Amino acid sequence: MEKYRIDQSKGLEFGIYTLGDHLPDPITGERISAEQRIHEIIELAKLAEQAGIDFFSVGESHQEYFATQAHAIVLAAIAQATSKIKISSSSTIISTSDPVRVYENFATLDLISKGRAEIIAGRASRVGLFDLLGYNLRDYEALYEEKFELLLKINQEEIVNWSGQFREPLNNAKVIPRPKNGSMPIWRAVGGPPASAIKAGYAGVPMFLATLGGPATSFKFSIDAYREAAERSGFDPSELPISTAGFFYTAETTQQAQKEYYPHINEGMKRTNGQGYPKQQFAQGADKRDVMNIGSPQQIIEKILYQHELFGHQRYIAQMDFGGVPFDKLAKNIELIGTEILPAIKKYTAKK
Amino acid sequence: MKIVILSGSNVGTKTRTAMNYTHKEVTSKYPNAEVTFIDLAAYDIQFSDGRIYMDYEGDTGYVAKTIMEADAIMIGTPIFQASIPATLKNIFDLLPVNAFRDKVVSVLVTAGSPKHFLIAEQQLKPILAYMKAQIVQTYVFIEEKDFHQKEIVNDDVVFRIERLVEDTISLTETYTKIRAEKEAKYDF
Questions:
Q1: Thinking of the domain B2-185, which architecture would CATH place it in?
Q2: Which of A176, B31, B66, B142 has its CA 20 to 30 A from that of A204?
Q3: CATH 3.40.50.300 correct for A2-349
Q4: Which ipTM was obtained for this model?
Q5: Residue A258: its chain B contacts at CB < 8 A?
Protein backbone atom coordinates (compact mmCIF):
# COMPACT_ATOMS: atom_id res chain seq x y z
CA MET A 1 0.00 0.00 0.00
CA GLU A 2 2.93 2.30 0.69
CA LYS A 3 3.78 2.37 -3.00
CA TYR A 4 0.36 3.92 -3.54
CA ARG A 5 0.82 6.36 -0.63
CA ILE A 6 -1.93 4.73 1.39
CA ASP A 7 -1.59 4.46 5.14
CA GLN A 8 -4.31 2.19 6.48
CA SER A 9 -3.57 3.08 10.07
CA LYS A 10 -5.24 6.41 9.32
CA GLY A 11 -8.49 4.73 8.25
CA LEU A 12 -10.51 4.90 5.06
CA GLU A 13 -9.43 7.80 2.89
CA PHE A 14 -12.21 10.22 2.01
CA GLY A 15 -12.12 12.24 -1.19
CA ILE A 16 -14.18 14.58 -3.33
CA TYR A 17 -14.38 14.26 -7.10
CA THR A 18 -15.93 16.34 -9.80
CA LEU A 19 -16.53 15.50 -13.44
CA GLY A 20 -16.37 19.21 -14.10
CA ASP A 21 -19.96 19.23 -15.27
CA HIS A 22 -21.30 22.65 -16.08
CA LEU A 23 -25.05 22.41 -15.78
CA PRO A 24 -27.77 24.90 -14.92
CA ASP A 25 -29.08 24.93 -11.36
CA PRO A 26 -32.53 23.34 -11.88
CA ILE A 27 -34.00 25.45 -9.06
CA THR A 28 -33.16 28.79 -10.65
CA GLY A 29 -32.72 27.60 -14.24
CA GLU A 30 -29.51 29.59 -14.41
CA ARG A 31 -26.03 28.47 -15.33
CA ILE A 32 -22.92 30.17 -14.00
CA SER A 33 -20.12 30.98 -16.44
CA ALA A 34 -17.39 28.42 -17.19
CA GLU A 35 -14.97 30.86 -15.56
CA GLN A 36 -16.95 30.89 -12.33
CA ARG A 37 -17.43 27.12 -12.39
CA ILE A 38 -13.68 26.50 -12.70
CA HIS A 39 -12.91 28.94 -9.90
CA GLU A 40 -15.51 27.31 -7.69
CA ILE A 41 -13.89 23.91 -8.26
CA ILE A 42 -10.53 25.32 -7.16
CA GLU A 43 -12.23 26.92 -4.16
CA LEU A 44 -13.96 23.63 -3.31
CA ALA A 45 -10.57 21.88 -3.26
CA LYS A 46 -9.28 24.48 -0.80
CA LEU A 47 -12.31 23.99 1.48
CA ALA A 48 -11.87 20.22 1.25
CA GLU A 49 -8.28 20.50 2.37
CA GLN A 50 -9.25 22.75 5.28
CA ALA A 51 -11.87 20.21 6.37
CA GLY A 52 -9.26 17.46 6.51
CA ILE A 53 -10.46 15.62 3.40
CA ASP A 54 -7.72 13.40 1.94
CA PHE A 55 -8.19 13.65 -1.79
CA PHE A 56 -9.62 15.84 -4.56
CA SER A 57 -9.95 14.98 -8.24
CA VAL A 58 -11.20 16.45 -11.50
CA GLY A 59 -12.37 14.61 -14.63
CA GLU A 60 -12.37 15.38 -18.33
CA SER A 61 -15.46 15.11 -20.52
CA HIS A 62 -15.56 16.51 -24.00
CA GLN A 63 -19.15 17.46 -24.58
CA GLU A 64 -21.79 20.01 -23.94
CA TYR A 65 -22.36 20.80 -20.25
CA PHE A 66 -18.77 20.19 -19.10
CA ALA A 67 -16.05 22.71 -18.30
CA THR A 68 -12.85 20.88 -17.30
CA GLN A 69 -11.72 19.31 -20.57
CA ALA A 70 -8.22 20.61 -19.69
CA HIS A 71 -8.41 18.92 -16.30
CA ALA A 72 -4.63 18.76 -15.80
CA ILE A 73 -4.54 22.56 -15.93
CA VAL A 74 -7.34 22.90 -13.38
CA LEU A 75 -5.42 20.44 -11.20
CA ALA A 76 -2.27 22.55 -11.52
CA ALA A 77 -4.19 25.53 -10.15
CA ILE A 78 -5.46 23.34 -7.30
CA ALA A 79 -1.92 22.13 -6.60
CA GLN A 80 -0.83 25.72 -6.23
CA ALA A 81 -3.79 26.66 -4.00
CA THR A 82 -3.38 23.73 -1.58
CA SER A 83 -0.58 22.08 0.34
CA LYS A 84 -1.68 18.75 1.86
CA ILE A 85 -4.59 17.22 -0.05
CA LYS A 86 -3.86 14.52 -2.66
CA ILE A 87 -4.86 15.52 -6.16
CA SER A 88 -5.76 13.43 -9.17
CA SER A 89 -7.65 13.13 -12.39
CA SER A 90 -11.02 11.30 -12.37
CA SER A 91 -10.62 10.24 -15.01
CA THR A 92 -7.98 11.03 -17.58
CA ILE A 93 -9.20 9.50 -20.84
CA ILE A 94 -5.99 7.80 -21.79
CA SER A 95 -7.47 6.25 -24.97
CA THR A 96 -7.51 9.55 -26.83
CA SER A 97 -4.34 11.11 -25.45
CA ASP A 98 -0.66 10.41 -25.88
CA PRO A 99 0.53 8.64 -22.70
CA VAL A 100 3.86 10.45 -22.97
CA ARG A 101 2.17 13.84 -22.80
CA VAL A 102 -0.18 12.72 -20.05
CA TYR A 103 2.76 11.50 -18.01
CA GLU A 104 4.73 14.72 -18.57
CA ASN A 105 1.72 16.72 -17.36
CA PHE A 106 1.04 14.66 -14.28
CA ALA A 107 4.70 14.24 -13.31
CA THR A 108 4.93 18.03 -13.47
CA LEU A 109 1.77 18.24 -11.38
CA ASP A 110 3.42 15.94 -8.87
CA LEU A 111 6.40 18.29 -8.67
CA ILE A 112 4.24 21.40 -8.35
CA SER A 113 2.24 19.73 -5.58
CA LYS A 114 5.37 18.29 -3.97
CA GLY A 115 4.41 14.66 -4.35
CA ARG A 116 0.62 14.72 -4.11
CA ALA A 117 -0.44 13.83 -7.67
CA GLU A 118 -2.05 10.64 -8.97
CA ILE A 119 -3.62 9.53 -12.26
CA ILE A 120 -6.88 7.64 -12.69
CA ALA A 121 -7.03 6.47 -16.28
CA GLY A 122 -10.38 5.68 -17.88
CA ARG A 123 -11.83 5.04 -21.30
CA ALA A 124 -14.80 7.47 -21.38
CA SER A 125 -18.49 6.79 -20.99
CA ARG A 126 -19.38 9.37 -23.64
CA VAL A 127 -17.63 9.26 -26.96
CA GLY A 128 -17.62 12.86 -28.20
CA LEU A 129 -13.86 13.07 -27.76
CA PHE A 130 -13.19 10.31 -30.30
CA ASP A 131 -14.50 12.55 -33.09
CA LEU A 132 -13.07 15.69 -31.57
CA LEU A 133 -9.55 14.32 -31.22
CA GLY A 134 -9.54 12.15 -34.34
CA TYR A 135 -9.87 8.58 -33.08
CA ASN A 136 -11.99 5.73 -34.35
CA LEU A 137 -14.64 4.51 -31.94
CA ARG A 138 -14.12 0.99 -33.26
CA ASP A 139 -10.78 1.02 -31.46
CA TYR A 140 -12.44 1.95 -28.15
CA GLU A 141 -11.09 -1.02 -26.19
CA ALA A 142 -7.82 -1.56 -28.01
CA LEU A 143 -6.86 2.11 -27.69
CA TYR A 144 -7.46 2.05 -23.95
CA GLU A 145 -5.60 -1.19 -23.27
CA GLU A 146 -2.57 -0.24 -25.33
CA LYS A 147 -2.23 3.30 -24.04
CA PHE A 148 -2.91 2.39 -20.44
CA GLU A 149 -0.18 -0.23 -20.63
CA LEU A 150 2.24 2.32 -22.06
CA LEU A 151 1.36 4.79 -19.31
CA LEU A 152 2.18 2.17 -16.69
CA LYS A 153 5.45 1.35 -18.44
CA ILE A 154 6.51 5.00 -18.48
CA ASN A 155 5.75 5.15 -14.77
CA GLN A 156 7.96 2.15 -14.09
CA GLU A 157 10.83 2.86 -16.47
CA GLU A 158 12.53 6.16 -17.08
CA ILE A 159 13.99 4.96 -20.37
CA VAL A 160 11.25 3.43 -22.46
CA ASN A 161 11.45 1.04 -25.40
CA TRP A 162 8.04 0.33 -26.76
CA SER A 163 6.08 -0.25 -29.94
CA GLY A 164 2.36 -0.59 -30.53
CA GLN A 165 -0.47 -0.05 -32.96
CA PHE A 166 -1.66 3.44 -32.14
CA ARG A 167 1.50 5.41 -31.58
CA GLU A 168 4.95 5.70 -33.11
CA PRO A 169 7.48 3.44 -31.34
CA LEU A 170 9.60 4.77 -28.51
CA ASN A 171 13.31 3.96 -28.76
CA ASN A 172 15.33 4.65 -25.64
CA ALA A 173 12.92 7.47 -24.98
CA LYS A 174 13.51 9.37 -21.77
CA VAL A 175 10.22 10.64 -20.36
CA ILE A 176 10.95 13.53 -18.01
CA PRO A 177 10.46 15.17 -15.58
CA ARG A 178 10.04 12.28 -13.19
CA PRO A 179 7.57 12.54 -10.31
CA LYS A 180 8.99 13.52 -6.92
CA ASN A 181 9.63 9.95 -5.83
CA GLY A 182 10.41 8.51 -9.24
CA SER A 183 6.92 7.12 -9.89
CA MET A 184 3.33 7.95 -8.98
CA PRO A 185 0.10 6.07 -8.21
CA ILE A 186 -1.81 5.17 -11.38
CA TRP A 187 -5.28 3.67 -11.07
CA ARG A 188 -7.54 1.93 -13.54
CA ALA A 189 -11.04 3.43 -13.71
CA VAL A 190 -13.67 0.69 -13.78
CA GLY A 191 -17.43 0.86 -14.42
CA GLY A 192 -20.02 -1.43 -12.84
CA PRO A 193 -19.62 -4.85 -14.56
CA PRO A 194 -16.75 -7.14 -13.53
CA ALA A 195 -15.02 -7.50 -16.95
CA SER A 196 -12.92 -4.37 -16.56
CA ALA A 197 -12.30 -5.09 -12.86
CA ILE A 198 -10.85 -8.45 -13.84
CA LYS A 199 -8.45 -6.76 -16.29
CA ALA A 200 -7.30 -4.40 -13.54
CA GLY A 201 -6.75 -7.39 -11.27
CA TYR A 202 -4.73 -9.36 -13.82
CA ALA A 203 -2.51 -6.32 -14.36
CA GLY A 204 -2.08 -5.81 -10.61
CA VAL A 205 -3.17 -2.19 -10.91
CA PRO A 206 -5.16 -0.33 -8.23
CA MET A 207 -8.83 -0.03 -9.10
CA PHE A 208 -11.23 2.88 -8.99
CA LEU A 209 -14.77 1.52 -9.10
CA ALA A 210 -17.71 3.74 -10.05
CA THR A 211 -20.76 2.89 -7.90
CA LEU A 212 -23.54 5.26 -8.84
CA GLY A 213 -26.58 3.54 -7.40
CA GLY A 214 -28.18 0.24 -6.44
CA PRO A 215 -27.39 -2.27 -3.71
CA ALA A 216 -23.82 -2.20 -2.43
CA THR A 217 -23.72 -6.00 -2.67
CA SER A 218 -23.97 -5.84 -6.46
CA PHE A 219 -20.60 -4.06 -6.59
CA LYS A 220 -19.05 -6.63 -4.32
CA PHE A 221 -18.89 -8.99 -7.34
CA SER A 222 -16.51 -6.66 -9.15
CA ILE A 223 -14.36 -6.26 -6.07
CA ASP A 224 -14.12 -10.00 -5.47
CA ALA A 225 -13.42 -10.63 -9.16
CA TYR A 226 -10.66 -8.00 -9.05
CA ARG A 227 -8.94 -9.55 -6.05
CA GLU A 228 -9.25 -13.09 -7.44
CA ALA A 229 -7.76 -12.03 -10.77
CA ALA A 230 -4.90 -10.24 -9.01
CA GLU A 231 -4.14 -13.33 -6.98
CA ARG A 232 -4.24 -15.58 -10.05
CA SER A 233 -1.61 -13.50 -11.77
CA GLY A 234 0.66 -13.49 -8.75
CA PHE A 235 -0.16 -10.23 -6.99
CA ASP A 236 -1.00 -9.90 -3.33
CA PRO A 237 -4.52 -8.38 -3.19
CA SER A 238 -3.82 -6.96 0.26
CA GLU A 239 -1.18 -4.76 -1.37
CA LEU A 240 -3.58 -3.39 -4.00
CA PRO A 241 -5.77 -0.44 -3.02
CA ILE A 242 -9.39 -0.18 -4.11
CA SER A 243 -11.37 3.00 -4.25
CA THR A 244 -15.06 3.49 -4.81
CA ALA A 245 -16.69 6.59 -6.27
CA GLY A 246 -20.31 7.65 -6.18
CA PHE A 247 -23.01 10.21 -5.55
CA PHE A 248 -22.94 12.02 -2.23
CA TYR A 249 -25.06 14.69 -0.61
CA THR A 250 -25.67 15.47 3.01
CA ALA A 251 -27.91 17.84 4.97
CA GLU A 252 -29.27 17.97 8.51
CA THR A 253 -31.80 15.21 7.81
CA THR A 254 -32.02 12.48 5.18
CA GLN A 255 -35.32 13.94 4.02
CA GLN A 256 -33.75 17.33 3.51
CA ALA A 257 -30.73 15.87 1.71
CA GLN A 258 -33.01 14.00 -0.71
CA LYS A 259 -35.15 17.06 -1.28
CA GLU A 260 -32.20 19.31 -1.98
CA TYR A 261 -30.25 16.93 -4.22
CA TYR A 262 -32.95 15.17 -6.26
CA PRO A 263 -33.63 17.97 -8.76
CA HIS A 264 -29.89 18.26 -9.46
CA ILE A 265 -29.36 14.57 -10.01
CA ASN A 266 -32.54 14.15 -12.06
CA GLU A 267 -32.11 17.15 -14.36
CA GLY A 268 -28.37 16.59 -14.60
CA MET A 269 -28.80 12.96 -15.66
CA LYS A 270 -31.39 14.00 -18.25
CA ARG A 271 -28.96 16.42 -19.83
CA THR A 272 -25.81 14.32 -19.68
CA ASN A 273 -27.21 10.76 -19.88
CA GLY A 274 -30.50 11.25 -21.69
CA GLN A 275 -32.68 9.83 -18.88
CA GLY A 276 -33.61 11.19 -15.47
CA TYR A 277 -33.15 9.38 -12.15
CA PRO A 278 -36.38 7.49 -11.27
CA LYS A 279 -37.90 8.72 -8.02
CA GLN A 280 -38.66 5.18 -6.92
CA GLN A 281 -34.98 4.21 -7.09
CA PHE A 282 -33.87 7.47 -5.54
CA ALA A 283 -36.20 6.83 -2.59
CA GLN A 284 -34.63 3.39 -2.11
CA GLY A 285 -31.24 5.11 -2.18
CA ALA A 286 -31.74 6.25 1.41
CA ASP A 287 -31.52 2.65 2.62
CA LYS A 288 -28.29 1.72 4.34
CA ARG A 289 -27.76 -1.11 1.85
CA ASP A 290 -27.90 1.19 -1.19
CA VAL A 291 -24.51 2.42 -2.32
CA MET A 292 -25.66 6.01 -2.97
CA ASN A 293 -24.42 8.17 -0.08
CA ILE A 294 -27.26 10.64 0.19
CA GLY A 295 -28.70 11.41 3.61
CA SER A 296 -28.08 12.88 7.06
CA PRO A 297 -24.48 12.74 8.33
CA GLN A 298 -25.46 9.84 10.62
CA GLN A 299 -27.08 7.91 7.77
CA ILE A 300 -24.01 8.46 5.59
CA ILE A 301 -21.66 7.31 8.33
CA GLU A 302 -23.66 4.10 8.62
CA LYS A 303 -23.67 3.62 4.85
CA ILE A 304 -19.95 4.18 4.46
CA LEU A 305 -19.11 1.86 7.35
CA TYR A 306 -21.40 -0.79 5.88
CA GLN A 307 -19.70 -0.40 2.50
CA HIS A 308 -16.29 -0.58 4.14
CA GLU A 309 -17.19 -3.77 5.92
CA LEU A 310 -18.41 -5.24 2.63
CA PHE A 311 -15.68 -4.00 0.28
CA GLY A 312 -12.63 -3.55 2.53
CA HIS A 313 -11.69 -0.64 0.30
CA GLN A 314 -9.04 1.97 1.07
CA ARG A 315 -10.64 5.12 -0.31
CA TYR A 316 -14.09 6.47 -1.04
CA ILE A 317 -14.60 9.54 -3.19
CA ALA A 318 -17.79 11.56 -3.24
CA GLN A 319 -19.44 13.35 -6.15
CA MET A 320 -21.51 16.12 -4.58
CA ASP A 321 -21.47 18.88 -7.17
CA PHE A 322 -23.31 17.15 -10.02
CA GLY A 323 -26.11 19.05 -11.72
CA GLY A 324 -25.45 22.67 -10.80
CA VAL A 325 -25.46 22.50 -6.99
CA PRO A 326 -24.87 26.08 -5.77
CA PHE A 327 -21.57 26.75 -4.05
CA ASP A 328 -23.01 27.61 -0.62
CA LYS A 329 -24.58 24.13 -0.51
CA LEU A 330 -21.26 22.53 -1.47
CA ALA A 331 -19.53 24.47 1.30
CA LYS A 332 -22.17 23.25 3.76
CA ASN A 333 -21.55 19.64 2.63
CA ILE A 334 -17.82 20.03 3.17
CA GLU A 335 -18.46 21.44 6.61
CA LEU A 336 -20.67 18.48 7.62
CA ILE A 337 -18.08 16.05 6.25
CA GLY A 338 -15.30 17.70 8.22
CA THR A 339 -17.14 18.07 11.51
CA GLU A 340 -19.34 14.95 11.63
CA ILE A 341 -18.65 12.36 8.96
CA LEU A 342 -14.84 12.23 8.76
CA PRO A 343 -14.12 11.85 12.49
CA ALA A 344 -16.55 8.92 12.79
CA ILE A 345 -15.33 7.16 9.66
CA LYS A 346 -11.66 7.53 10.54
CA LYS A 347 -12.31 6.30 14.06
CA TYR A 348 -14.01 3.09 12.97
CA THR A 349 -11.87 2.23 9.94
CA ALA A 350 -8.33 2.92 11.16
CA LYS A 351 -6.31 -0.31 11.07
CA LYS A 352 -4.42 -0.88 14.27
CA MET B 1 -48.92 13.16 -25.07
CA LYS B 2 -46.14 12.27 -27.50
CA ILE B 3 -46.79 9.22 -29.65
CA VAL B 4 -44.38 7.60 -32.08
CA ILE B 5 -45.75 5.35 -34.80
CA LEU B 6 -42.84 3.15 -35.81
CA SER B 7 -42.93 1.09 -38.99
CA GLY B 8 -40.16 -1.40 -38.31
CA SER B 9 -39.24 -2.68 -41.74
CA ASN B 10 -37.11 -1.25 -44.53
CA VAL B 11 -38.73 -3.35 -47.27
CA GLY B 12 -42.26 -4.26 -48.34
CA THR B 13 -45.59 -2.49 -47.99
CA LYS B 14 -47.77 -4.43 -45.56
CA THR B 15 -46.33 -3.13 -42.29
CA ARG B 16 -46.26 0.36 -43.70
CA THR B 17 -49.89 0.03 -44.81
CA ALA B 18 -50.98 -1.19 -41.36
CA MET B 19 -49.10 1.69 -39.73
CA ASN B 20 -50.73 4.19 -42.10
CA TYR B 21 -54.12 3.01 -40.86
CA THR B 22 -52.88 3.25 -37.29
CA HIS B 23 -51.51 6.73 -37.85
CA LYS B 24 -54.77 7.92 -39.37
CA GLU B 25 -56.74 6.44 -36.51
CA VAL B 26 -54.57 8.17 -33.89
CA THR B 27 -54.57 11.59 -35.55
CA SER B 28 -58.31 11.58 -36.28
CA LYS B 29 -59.42 10.37 -32.85
CA TYR B 30 -56.81 12.21 -30.78
CA PRO B 31 -56.08 15.51 -32.55
CA ASN B 32 -54.28 16.90 -29.49
CA ALA B 33 -51.67 14.14 -29.38
CA GLU B 34 -48.26 15.00 -30.77
CA VAL B 35 -47.75 12.20 -33.28
CA THR B 36 -44.53 11.36 -35.15
CA PHE B 37 -44.52 8.74 -37.88
CA ILE B 38 -41.20 6.97 -38.34
CA ASP B 39 -40.90 4.58 -41.27
CA LEU B 40 -37.50 2.93 -41.00
CA ALA B 41 -37.44 2.52 -44.79
CA ALA B 42 -37.18 6.30 -45.07
CA TYR B 43 -34.09 6.67 -42.87
CA ASP B 44 -30.46 5.78 -43.15
CA ILE B 45 -29.72 4.21 -39.78
CA GLN B 46 -26.33 2.87 -38.71
CA PHE B 47 -25.83 -0.25 -36.65
CA SER B 48 -25.55 0.22 -32.91
CA ASP B 49 -21.95 0.52 -31.73
CA GLY B 50 -22.73 0.73 -28.03
CA ARG B 51 -22.45 4.49 -27.55
CA ILE B 52 -25.04 6.39 -25.54
CA TYR B 53 -28.00 7.25 -27.78
CA MET B 54 -27.45 11.00 -27.47
CA ASP B 55 -24.10 10.67 -29.23
CA TYR B 56 -25.54 9.36 -32.53
CA GLU B 57 -25.89 11.86 -35.30
CA GLY B 58 -28.01 12.27 -38.45
CA ASP B 59 -30.96 9.92 -39.02
CA THR B 60 -29.78 7.53 -36.30
CA GLY B 61 -29.68 10.31 -33.72
CA TYR B 62 -33.04 11.68 -34.83
CA VAL B 63 -34.84 8.34 -34.60
CA ALA B 64 -33.26 7.39 -31.24
CA LYS B 65 -33.99 10.76 -29.66
CA THR B 66 -37.57 10.90 -30.99
CA ILE B 67 -38.33 7.48 -29.52
CA MET B 68 -36.74 8.41 -26.19
CA GLU B 69 -38.95 11.51 -25.94
CA ALA B 70 -42.18 9.60 -26.59
CA ASP B 71 -44.81 8.68 -24.01
CA ALA B 72 -46.19 5.91 -26.18
CA ILE B 73 -44.75 3.93 -29.09
CA MET B 74 -46.81 1.87 -31.50
CA ILE B 75 -44.51 -0.60 -33.23
CA GLY B 76 -45.36 -2.29 -36.50
CA THR B 77 -43.23 -5.27 -37.47
CA PRO B 78 -43.15 -7.84 -40.23
CA ILE B 79 -41.84 -11.35 -39.54
CA PHE B 80 -38.63 -12.28 -41.31
CA GLN B 81 -37.08 -15.75 -40.91
CA ALA B 82 -39.33 -16.50 -37.97
CA SER B 83 -38.35 -13.34 -36.08
CA ILE B 84 -38.47 -9.57 -36.04
CA PRO B 85 -36.41 -7.85 -38.75
CA ALA B 86 -32.85 -6.72 -38.03
CA THR B 87 -33.87 -3.12 -38.72
CA LEU B 88 -36.20 -3.18 -35.72
CA LYS B 89 -33.81 -5.05 -33.45
CA ASN B 90 -31.18 -2.47 -34.27
CA ILE B 91 -33.47 0.28 -32.96
CA PHE B 92 -33.65 -1.54 -29.62
CA ASP B 93 -29.87 -1.97 -29.63
CA LEU B 94 -29.36 1.76 -30.14
CA LEU B 95 -31.28 2.61 -26.97
CA PRO B 96 -30.37 2.33 -23.27
CA VAL B 97 -31.43 -0.74 -21.26
CA ASN B 98 -34.25 1.12 -19.51
CA ALA B 99 -35.31 3.02 -22.60
CA PHE B 100 -39.03 2.19 -22.29
CA ARG B 101 -39.32 2.93 -18.60
CA ASP B 102 -42.46 5.07 -18.12
CA LYS B 103 -43.53 4.42 -21.72
CA VAL B 104 -46.39 2.40 -23.14
CA VAL B 105 -45.60 0.20 -26.13
CA SER B 106 -48.10 -1.56 -28.36
CA VAL B 107 -47.53 -3.89 -31.29
CA LEU B 108 -48.93 -4.68 -34.76
CA VAL B 109 -47.57 -7.66 -36.62
CA THR B 110 -47.85 -8.39 -40.33
CA ALA B 111 -46.98 -11.91 -41.41
CA GLY B 112 -47.11 -14.21 -44.40
CA SER B 113 -48.29 -17.16 -42.36
CA PRO B 114 -50.55 -17.76 -39.34
CA LYS B 115 -47.76 -19.97 -37.99
CA HIS B 116 -46.02 -16.73 -37.02
CA PHE B 117 -48.69 -15.69 -34.56
CA LEU B 118 -46.67 -16.36 -31.39
CA ILE B 119 -43.47 -14.71 -32.57
CA ALA B 120 -44.42 -11.32 -31.12
CA GLU B 121 -45.39 -13.03 -27.89
CA GLN B 122 -42.21 -15.04 -27.59
CA GLN B 123 -39.61 -12.80 -29.18
CA LEU B 124 -40.74 -9.19 -29.22
CA LYS B 125 -42.51 -8.86 -25.88
CA PRO B 126 -39.53 -10.17 -23.86
CA ILE B 127 -37.34 -7.43 -25.39
CA LEU B 128 -39.94 -4.76 -24.60
CA ALA B 129 -40.32 -6.05 -21.04
CA TYR B 130 -36.54 -6.14 -20.57
CA MET B 131 -36.42 -2.51 -21.64
CA LYS B 132 -39.10 -1.75 -19.00
CA ALA B 133 -42.05 -1.02 -21.30
CA GLN B 134 -45.63 -1.07 -20.12
CA ILE B 135 -46.89 -3.39 -22.85
CA VAL B 136 -50.38 -3.36 -24.27
CA GLN B 137 -50.88 -7.08 -23.94
CA THR B 138 -53.06 -7.71 -26.97
CA TYR B 139 -51.43 -7.13 -30.32
CA VAL B 140 -52.92 -6.93 -33.77
CA PHE B 141 -51.84 -9.78 -36.04
CA ILE B 142 -52.47 -9.19 -39.74
CA GLU B 143 -52.02 -11.75 -42.48
CA GLU B 144 -51.28 -11.60 -46.20
CA LYS B 145 -54.91 -12.21 -47.12
CA ASP B 146 -56.06 -9.15 -45.15
CA PHE B 147 -54.28 -6.84 -47.60
CA HIS B 148 -54.98 -5.97 -51.18
CA GLN B 149 -52.99 -3.33 -53.06
CA LYS B 150 -51.90 -1.34 -50.02
CA GLU B 151 -55.36 -1.43 -48.45
CA ILE B 152 -56.69 -3.47 -45.57
CA VAL B 153 -59.62 -5.46 -46.90
CA ASN B 154 -60.65 -7.24 -43.72
CA ASP B 155 -62.94 -5.06 -41.58
CA ASP B 156 -62.08 -7.08 -38.51
CA VAL B 157 -58.46 -5.91 -38.79
CA VAL B 158 -59.61 -2.30 -39.01
CA PHE B 159 -61.70 -2.75 -35.85
CA ARG B 160 -58.76 -4.38 -34.07
CA ILE B 161 -56.50 -1.44 -34.99
CA GLU B 162 -59.13 0.96 -33.62
CA ARG B 163 -59.18 -0.95 -30.36
CA LEU B 164 -55.37 -1.13 -30.14
CA VAL B 165 -55.12 2.65 -30.58
CA GLU B 166 -57.75 3.25 -27.94
CA ASP B 167 -56.06 0.84 -25.52
CA THR B 168 -52.65 2.41 -26.12
CA ILE B 169 -53.96 5.91 -25.39
CA SER B 170 -55.99 4.95 -22.34
CA LEU B 171 -53.11 2.93 -20.85
CA THR B 172 -50.73 5.83 -21.42
CA GLU B 173 -53.14 8.24 -19.74
CA THR B 174 -53.64 5.82 -16.86
CA TYR B 175 -49.96 5.16 -16.26
CA THR B 176 -49.14 8.86 -16.48
CA LYS B 177 -51.77 9.54 -13.84
CA ILE B 178 -50.65 6.70 -11.57
CA ARG B 179 -47.04 7.83 -11.84
CA ALA B 180 -47.87 11.47 -11.10
CA GLU B 181 -49.83 10.43 -8.01
CA LYS B 182 -47.06 8.14 -6.80
CA GLU B 183 -44.33 10.70 -7.39
CA ALA B 184 -46.31 13.38 -5.58
CA LYS B 185 -46.15 11.21 -2.48
CA TYR B 186 -42.37 11.31 -2.32
CA ASP B 187 -41.02 14.07 -0.21
CA PHE B 188 -38.39 15.23 -2.70
A1: 3-Layer(aba) Sandwich (3.40)
A2: A176
A3: no
A4: 0.87
A5: 187-188
